[in-house]
Amino acid sequence: MTAPLSAASVDEMRALLARVEGASGGDAKLDAALKLVAAAVAIAGGMSAHETREAFGGLYDTAPPYTSSIDAALALKDRVLPGWRACVDTGDPSRAPSTVRLPFAHLEPNLDNDDGWAKAGPTRGQAATPPLAIIAAVLHALIATQEHAGER
After folding, report:
1. Is 0.85 topped by the overall pTM?
2. Which candidate among 16, 53, 74, 116 keeps its CA 20 to 30 Å from the CA of 123?
3. Contact present, 127 and 135 (Cβ < 8 Å)
4. Phi and psi for 89 in degrees, rounded to 5?
5. With 50 as the cut, is the pLDDT of residue 16 above it?
6. What span, in angstroms and rounded, lies between the C-alpha atoms of 127 and 101?
7. pLDDT tens digit string along 90-101?
8. 56: closest CA among 83, 38, 80?
9. What percentage of the chain exceeds 90 in pLDDT?
10. How many helices (H) and strands (E) does the chain have?
């Protein structure tokens, strides 16, 4: 069971989500902020300080390129939302030209992940690039999960 983060932490995730949705591409400062959020979520979930350092590196270590690499964005999803599936798409080209279609990511818990379905259910993120869309969906899911945990 994941312990709820503070209301301030959820507000910080919302602010970070707005930055991700407004970004036009990879951003090292966003990567660093995402690394800190992921570590906070891991610690709230019961990960020890040693395990957190092993998983995410130290405070002064460079963050992975979450905002510019699909692989890094999916690895972040796996760390903070284990048991969730991701689908990334750019929409139907017959319905809108590529200049107006934004990539989107859809996340959902696996069918046998009852805890994930109870906490948040499917989420969707949309942003300028596929990695940013994945990160936006991850943040939407984390916010929903934390809001659900805070209601208990």
Report:
1. no
2. 53
3. yes
4. -150, 165
5. yes
6. 10
7. 766 666 666 556
8. 38
9. 33
10. 6, 3
